Amino acid sequence: MKKYGRTFHLPTSPGVGSDDKIIQDLTHMRAADEVVFTEKMDGENTTIFSGGCHARSPDSGYHASRDWMKAYAAGISPSLSENERIVGEYLFAKHSVAYDELPSYFLGFAWIVGDEVQSWDETLGRFEELGVMPVPVLQRGKFNDAGVNSVLNLLDLNTQEGFVVRSISPFLESDMATHIAKYVREGHVQSDIHWTKAQIVKNGLRRDS
């Protein structure tokens, strides 16, 4: 089991917390032929691997909300090789954002083989093979001020957490600090009680899900 790396905040992200990190080098992002902006979903970072699944920290303890995820992962894990991981947001339990029309409680955003995060288009192809729904895509294009502003105009930060932007090309996990970043709304966490300590409130699925 391997912990998924930290995604740094963009310098303009208003939701930077005291223990968060800010991306210091935007050279690779600006030089990328194309990037993809996806919605930052308010869930629990979760990895599916050949032996099952785990929350972002592999040694996380039991929580009742994770029962659905374990059953879901059991249907995918047998199709994964030992060096293959699917990473996404697990959205069964409401955190700070409530969802009513999710296509699935697990939405993938990364396919990792060995120590390499695969290209976005190949990731979508692998998701389709496995039956994994991806996080919503907001926009594809160049990473520049105009592109960021265009994406922000698509978001309602009263009901959405923000966005994640990454190069569509593959990159090493060790290069995550320069090839992927996030923008999170100000004051995102709206409760003093961590979701794992509160009563479980289920998010909603679409009727066709």
What tags apply to this protein structure?
5-stranded mixed β-sheet, D-amino Acid Aminotransferase, Chain A, domain 1, 7-stranded mixed β-sheet, 19% helix, globular, 12 strands, alpha+beta, single chain, 209 residues
Can you put this structure into words, describing what you see?
With 209 residues, the chain is of the alpha+beta class. It has one domain (8-187): DNA ligase/mRNA capping enzyme (D-amino Acid Aminotransferase, Chain A, domain 1, 2-Layer Sandwich). It is built from five helices and twelve strands. The chain has helices at 27-31, 67-76, 120-130, 145-154, 176-179, and strands at 8-9, 35-39, 44-49, 52-55, 84-90, 106-113, 116-117, 133-134, 137-141, 162-167, 171-172, 180-184. Strands 3, 4, 5, 6, 7, 8 and 11 form a seven-stranded mixed beta sheet that branches. It has a five-stranded mixed beta sheet with strand order 1-12-10-2-9. The model has no long low-confidence stretch (mean pLDDT 91).
